[in-house]
Design brief:
By secondary structure, the chain is of the alpha+beta class. The protein contains three helices and five strands.
Amino acid sequence: MEAHWIWWLVAVVLVIAEMSSGTFYLIAVASGLAIAGAVAYMGVGWSGQAAVAAVLCSASVAGIYRWKKQHDRPHENVNFANDIGQTVRAVSWSDERHARVSYRGAEWDAELAGKAAADASRQTWRIKEFVGNRLIIE
């Protein structure tokens, strides 16, 4: 099999693999390999093909990495540690230890902390911790 077909075959395999990963890094590498295949088709030797593949793959992966760094969305990376100590308002109680509370404009499931005394008449509680999507209040 000729060298250009090998480059193109590997590029196609990477494009197919990219469809399951969704990161765009494999597309970047596949494009470098496809161009290396075109260089091989033009008759350039193995060292030239490998150099073109290495430079283009590295440059395209670095470009994607840089683009992702610049377009990072910190508001999507919520840190719940900032919520510890905040107050919530009890909306309803399902039993002595479990309630629905209002916090951040939504209702959350909440559970009383281990030693917290149940008090259905109390309206405001403090967040002690998070367990999954449940608030532990005291």
